[in-house]
Design a protein that fits this description.
Strand 3 (77-80), helix 3 and strand 4 (98-101) form a beta-alpha-beta unit. The chain is an alpha/beta fold. The chain has helices spanning 17-30, 63-72, 81-86, 103-112, and strands spanning 2-8, 36-42, 77-80, 98-101, 115-118. It starts with a strand and ends with a strand. The protein is 34% helix and 22% strand.
């Protein structure tokens, strides 16, 4: 089993970077060749991607739904506490299954990961 950590930094809808990182995460969980221990850590403006009640009428994707699928697949999702606080994001505002984490959490996840992707 491989352990993969995705650290996302990009804003949710300003570019497609966060969207593509979630596409990669979903593909990793959907493949059958190998079991993957996947974790997601959101930093900077990426914390906005895990907000509840998103409406995206002009886009063909909804990041909230993608995060909810990953959460249902038991993928841990943490938001950087400092980044969330700086942006006014609280635990009550984020989707079920996502949590506020710390730099220490990211450090622990990084040390045990076989691969770390920064997007």
């Amino acid at each position: 089993m491989q352990s993969i950590l995705i650290v996302a930094h990009a804003s949710p809808y300003g570019t497609e970077k966060l969207f593509n990182s979630l596409r990669i995460a979903l593909a990793l969980k959907d493949q059958d060749e190998q079991v993957v221990d996947l974790k997601l850590f959101l930093m900077s403006d990426a914390v906005f991607g895990a907000l509840k009640n998103q409406t995206t009428p002009d886009l063909s994707y909804n990041l909230q739904q993608m995060f909810e699928i990953l959460s249902a697949q038991q993928v841990p999702i943490l938001l950087c506490k400092t980044c969330a606080q700086a942006r006014g994001v609280t635990a009550e505002m984020i989707i079920e299954g996502a949590h506020i984490g710390t730099l220490q959490d990211l450090t622990r996840w990084t040390l045990v990961a076989d691969k770390v992707m920064h997007i």
